[in-house]
Write a structure and sequence with these properties.
2 helices, rod-shaped, two-stranded antiparallel ribbon, binds zinc ion, alpha+beta
Length: about 90
């Protein structure tokens, strides 16, 4: 094997390594900006507390109740939850 080929290969690997590292650094800087909320995936599954089905969060109906967030599959479940939450004393 010609020693120059090894050098060229090593150089290529080094360039690739720098490229990957550089990209990672940029992505991290975008995600953790000061005062910026961590990016939340919209396609994460959330549980409907009424019928216990899982729905993608972007499709779910959201209700914020005393600081907690609840997600519902439909208006029907949301109404059901809102109608019953006052009766519970937990
Ligand atoms: Zn439901």
């Amino acid at each position: 094997v010609h020693p120059l080929r090894i050098l060229i290969l090593a150089g290529l690997f080094y360039l690739l390594y720098r490229l990957v590292r550089g990209k990672r650094r940029v992505r991290r800087a975008e995600g953790n900006g000061p005062g910026e909320a961590p990016p939340l995936a919209d396609d994460v599954l959330v549980e409907d507390p009424v019928c216990h089905t899982y729905i993608p969060r972007r499709q779910a109906l959201k209700v914020t109740d005393r600081g907690a967030e609840y997600y519902f599959c439909s208006e029907e479940c949301r109404k059901h939850y809102l109608a019953n939450k006052g009766e519970k004393t937990t």
